[in-house]
Sequence to fold (84 residues):
Amino acid sequence: MTENDDWEREFDHRWANSAEHKEPSARARMLAARWKENPPDPAPFRADPDPVPHRTSWASTAMVVGCVIAVMVLIGLAQFGSSY
Fold:
């Protein structure tokens, strides 16, 4: 048997994925045991801790225009410096 055969046998993912019973991870077992005694409070999926105030449309527009101008200035400076 070659070393390559040992490597393929050791890391045969198709065989592992075809198993009828898959044991849950240690974290899943720990949370299941913890939640059996003390279930968590219901919460929305990935809820923000504090609501973020919404910007007005003019503030967003000003930010985009400012970024575009800054990029144009940087490109101009780069071209000006490379001309010497």
Summary: The longest helix spans residues 57-82. Residues 57 and 63 are 10 Å apart (CA to CA). The chain has a mean pLDDT of 80.
